[in-house]
């Protein structure tokens, strides 16, 4: 029998399409499940604005820190839980274009406060 392959959209094409979905978090999260390429493109868009981040997202950002930074946190009695010691699938921090200082500070307070 003949094996047919489904044509794939290029990264540039997916970028253009997904940019129109930037405000539709539900759909972008669904795109993550399609395949690896769709996942990469949608993750980049989902993670660029820290206004949308929640507590678990900040734990993921901490997981993206270099080992030296994690050691500094540990030396200052800021314990990093086991899940954040794993290497993340993506360098999520590199996608962040907007990281509001006050919101980041509040999230870090919550993160540290949960350890006390």
From TrEMBL:
Organism: Rhizophagus irregularis (strain DAOM 181602 / DAOM 197198 / MUCL 43194) (Arbuscular mycorrhizal fungus)
Protein name per UniProt: F-box domain-containing protein
Taxonomic placement: Eukaryota, Fungi, Fungi incertae sedis, Mucoromycota, Glomeromycotina
């Amino acid at each position: 029998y003949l094996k047919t392959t489904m044509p794939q959209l290029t990264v540039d094409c997916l970028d253009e399409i997904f940019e129109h979905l930037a405000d539709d978090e539900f759909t972008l999260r669904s795109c993550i499940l399609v395949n690896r390429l769709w996942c990469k493109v949608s993750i980049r868009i989902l993670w660029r604005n820290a206004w949308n981040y929640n507590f678990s997202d900040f734990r993921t950002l901490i997981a993206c820190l270099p080992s030296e930074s994690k050691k500094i946190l540990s030396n200052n009695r800021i314990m990093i839980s086991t899940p954040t010691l794993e290497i993340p699938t993506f360098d999520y921090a590199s996608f962040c274009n907007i990281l509001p200082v006050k919101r980041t500070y509040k999230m870090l307070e919550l993160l540290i406060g949960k350890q006390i």
